[in-house]
Amino acid sequence: MSRFWSKAALAGLIALPMCAAAFEAVDVLPAASSGLYPAYPSDPIPPYSVWAQAGLMYDSNVLRRPSGDNNEWLTRVGVGGRMDQRVFGRQGVHLEGRLDGYLYDKFSDLDNVSYSALGEWRYEVGNDLAGALGVSRRRFQAALSEIQRDQYDPITESTLNATARYAIGPHLGLRGAAHWIDYVRPSRPFSNTRTVILGGGIDYVTDLGNAVGFEVQEAKGDAPVNQQVDPLGIFVSNNFTQRDYGVIGAFGITPSIRVAGRFGRTQRTYSELPGRDFNGPTWSVTGQWYPTTKTVLFVDSAKHVSSVIDVGASHVVVRGYGVGAGWAVTAKLNLMARFLRQHQVFEGDPEAELGVAPLREEYIRGYRLGAYWEYTRRIHYQFAFDHGERQSNIVGRDYTYNAGIVQVRFVF
Length: 412
Description:
Layout lengths: L1 H13 L9 H4 L20 E12 L12 E17 L2 E14 L7 E14 L3 E13 L2 H4 L6 E15 L3 E13 L8 E13 L5 E12 L16 E16 L2 E14 L7 E15 L2 E12 L9 E13 L4 E13 L4 H5 L6 E14 L4 E14 L6 E13 L1
Antiparallel strand pairs: 1-2, 1-18, 2-3, 3-4, 4-5, 5-6, 6-7, 7-8, 8-9, 9-10, 10-11, 11-12, 12-13, 13-14, 14-15, 15-16, 16-17, 17-18
C-alpha cells in the first residue's frame, strides 16, 4: 500500500494548480529514479541529504496584469536538507528545511528571502500504535496573481501537528490528528487567521494493498470581518466552523491502473455573517494508467473549500481537473506534461457583500512541459515551460503569461 500511495502522491503533485511563483513548475518535477515508474524503482532513502540549487526564469507577465510592460528575469538561489535519525528503539526524529533568495531584475522591490522548516518526533509504542508530533514554519511572498503589483508582501505560516494510528489486527486501523495553524500577513492584518483542526478515521487495508475508509474532520477558526464590511466595528469577530465528512479509498483496478481519492461533504458556517456559509459536496480523485513500465498517464479532479490568506475573501471554492503524462526516457531523464482547468468562486468577498461588485468568479487554464535530467548522481538539471491564463468577471484581473525556467541542483 505504501508504494501505491507514494506514486499517487507524486502524480498528484504534478497536477497541482499553477501558482504565481512559476519556479513551482520545476519544484514538483520528479526524477525518473524517484519511484514513479515501475522500470526504475527508487533507491533506499538515505539518512540525510543536503542540496544547493540556482535557477533562472523569464516571465512575460510576472505581475499577472491584463496589459503593460511586466516581463521580468528572476534568479533564485537556495539550499536545503533533510535528516532522519533514530534516537532510541523505534523512536526517531525527522528534520527538513530550505532557504531561498529571489532576485528580480526590473521589479527589485520584490526581492525577498523565503524559508520553510519542519521538525517531527516520529514515535512507535509497541506493534500497534505509531504517529508523529511536529512543528513547522514557513515564510513566503503573497501570490503576485492576487496583489498584481511590485510590493514585498510576506506571509508567515506556523503549525503544530499531532498524528496517531492504532492498528486493530493486520487489516483494520484507527487514526486521529490535531493541527493548529496560524497565518500572519502584516500588510493585511484583517486577513490573519488561526485555525484548530481535529479529525479521525477508520481504514481497512486488504492483503493486496487496496484500502477503503471513512474520515471526519472539524475545524474552528477566525475569519476577521473586513473594515469595508464593518466600518463601525459592530462585529467583534466572525469565527467559522468547518466540518468535513468523506469516504477515502485506494484501489489497484488492474496491475497498471490505479485510483485513489476521497469523496464527501463540507459544511462551513460563520458566526456573524451567515451569508458566507458553504454546504456542498467536495472530492479529490487521482487516476493513473501505466501503458508501459516507463510511461504514465494521469487524470485528477477536485473540489474543495478553504481559507486562503493570499486573497481578501473568507474562503474560496475551487473546482477543476487536470490531465497529464510522464515518460522516463532513460533512468536519468524524465519528461512530463500536464493541462489544468479550474473554476474559482471567491465567496465572502467584502466588495460583493457590500453590493459594489459582483461575486468574484475566475477561470484558470494552463499547460506545463518539464524535464528532469540527472546528469550525474550529484548534478541535476531541471527545465520547464509554463503557460497560464485567467478570465475573471472583475475588471483588471484577466491575464496571460508564458514562463521558461532553467535550474541546476547539486546534491551533496
